[in-house]
Amino acid sequence: IPTDIHPQTKKSCVETVLTLMHAGGKFGGSTSSYSVAGGLHGVGLSVVNALSEALEVTVCRDGKEYRQHYSRGKPLTTLSSTTLPDESSRQGSCIRFWPDKEIFTTTIEFDFSTISSRIRELAFLNPELTITLTKEEQDAQVQHNEYCYAGGLVEYVAWLNNDKKPLHDPIAFRKELDGIIVDVSLQWCSDSYSDTVLGYANSIRTVDGGTHIEGLKTSLTRTINSFAKKSKIMKDKDISLSGEHVREGMTCIISVKVPNPEFEGQTKTRLGNPEVRRIVEQSVQENLTEYLELHPDVLDSILSKSLNALKAALAAKRARELVRTKSVLKSSSLPGKLADCASSNPAESGELPVVLGKSCIIFLCNASRCRLA
After folding, report:
1. Number of domains in the chain
2. Which chemical reaction does it catalyze (predicted)?
3. What is residue 328's three-state secondary structure?
4. At residue 71, does pLDDT exceed 90?
5. Residues 169 and 308 in one domain
6. Is there a domain that residue 92 lies in?
7. Which of helix, strand or coil describes residue 300?
């Protein structure tokens, strides 16, 4: 958090960020604190401050430590500063807050597992980041976890597939174009029959998908089908694998960093930037094609898995049609001799007489129903 004076409000930038809407580190164009950000409107920290009975902010930078106290969104003290020891190189900001009991009238409790899950995601998505989480309570054992994953999305996929049987090592690639960064890691498993696709935009989980997920699925299906047409595994070259067949058993993580994200809705569950789809499609096609050309054994495993998924889908379709056909025949009431045989014993099913004439018509009767031969 900057500590100088904001030119428009004549307040310290700390106070501006903590008390005013539409103020934050993401604003300021090329001079802003972040190249990409999940916040859209600069309201998060100021809202937390307004809903807290007490909030303390500490900023360390340029050899000094700055402190200020707030209550329910209003400053209780001015921004004070102390000089740190010469050997100190502390940098960063610390926010401590206590939720307002007059607003949150039910039990105020921070769930360790929920926070831990979110921090683990952030550590996977940002491999250069180390995050520590500590829960301290009176008369209770201290819970402490540290999260750091140098492998990034590759470790994320491996962690998700920990109890499965992978067909190959995780595939990972990265592309940066027009200021947009695309990171993808994916892996197929032999004992999985559903797909897991997790999408993130600026480290925010987009549970409803978006243009990055659409671009991934489209390019993935197109690329695998292109290899299938040339492969000896696919005997019938006219068969096309659908996206559902291609993704069966696949675990994929895609993370995009977008300078100006366009989320659909305030909950940020879906990304709407159309330019992201084009870049993701290009990235997946180029990198996945290159990898599979260099690893033909992995390609054969993926194609075999996809082909088996197609065969299973066709068999299930035929089974459904057969069940529906039998249901129609059972429900239909045919008159007299045209009705289905009631017995499955051939000895009890009589044969109709053969009528010979200028044309020969033979009626055969089997255990299921009469037919014209």
Report:
1. 4
2. ATP-dependent breakage, passage and rejoining of double-stranded DNA
3. helix
4. yes
5. yes
6. yes
7. helix
Q: Is residue 191 domain-shared with residue 235, that is, in the same domain? A: yes
Helix axes 296-331, 211-230, angle to 10 degrees: 100
pLDDT at position 346 is 62
Percent pLDDT > 70 in the chain is 81
Query: Which structural domain, as residue segments, surrounds residue 340?
Result: 336-373
Asked whether 233 and 307 are in contact (CB, 8 A), the reply is yes
Question: Is residue 327 domain-resident?
Answer: no
Rounded CA Rg of the chain: 32
Lowest pLDDT segment from 118-122, 255-259, 281-285, 315-319:
315-319
What is the rounded distance in angstroms from the CA atom of residue 183 to the CA atom of residue 256? 6
Side-chain-side CA neighbours of 329 within 13 Å: the count stands at 14
Higher pLDDT, 193 or 107: 193
Same domain membership, residue 267 and residue 128:
no
Greatest CA span in the chain, whole angstroms?
118
Whether residue 146 is found in the same domain as residue 14? no
Flag whether pLDDT at 83 surpasses 70.
yes
279-293 residue pLDDT tens:
999 999 999 999 999
What is the DSSP code (8-state) at residue 355? B
pTM score, two decimals?
Answer: 0.79
How does strand 196-201 pair with strand 204-205?
antiparallel
Question: Which tokens hold the place of 275?
Answer: 């330019």
Residue 173 has pLDDT above 70, yes or no: yes
Residue 308 belongs to some domain of the structure: yes
Mean pLDDT, range 137-150, rounded to an integer: 87
In terms of Cα–Cα distance, which of 320, 356, 331, 168 is closest to 251? 168
Q: For strand 250-257 and strand 196-201, is the pairing parallel, antiparallel, or unpaired?
A: parallel
The answer to whether residue 320 is domain-embedded is no
CATH number reported for the structural domain that contains residue 187 in this entry: 3.30.230.10
What DSSP element (H or E) covers 120? helix 112-125
120 and 89 in a common domain: no
Provide the token pair at 19: 């008390």
